[in-house]
Specification:
Elements lengths: L1 H24 L7 H25 L4 H16 L4 H20 L1
Helix pairs in contact: 2-3, 3-4
Length: 102
């Protein structure tokens, strides 16, 4: 039981340091173009890395999830709003799972 508290404390410390150190160590604006572009894309990459496996594994058949991903990308690329993209992905999964599982 005491090792659990040690792990929780260690995780809290690391999380705190990750958030506080950049604020305290970086005082001037970042002028390096490579670092600025890297920091600009970090949230998008993080979101994609967390979302992609969930899209494919959330369905009963990975094929339906992969097809929904492709349909969602195409729908978003054509300029549809978030609701239409999500609805087209859901309909794709529904149709494919009805076909594949029955």
């Amino acid at each position: 039981m005491s090792s659990n508290w040690l792990y929780i404390g260690l995780v809290a410390l690391v999380t705190y340091l990750i958030r506080v150190l950049p604020i305290t160590l970086i005082q001037k604006p970042i002028k390096n173009q490579f670092i600025r572009s890297f920091l600009y894309y970090v949230p998008y990459v993080t979101l994609a890395v967390m979302t992609f496996p969930a899209i494919v594994q959330a369905t009963q058949t990975p094929l339906a999830g992969a097809a929904a991903l492709v349909i969602g990308i195409i729908t978003a690329w054509k300029g549809a709003d978030l609701f239409r993209v999500a609805a087209s992905c859901c309909v794709t999964v529904l149709i494919l799972e009805l076909i594949l599982l029955h």
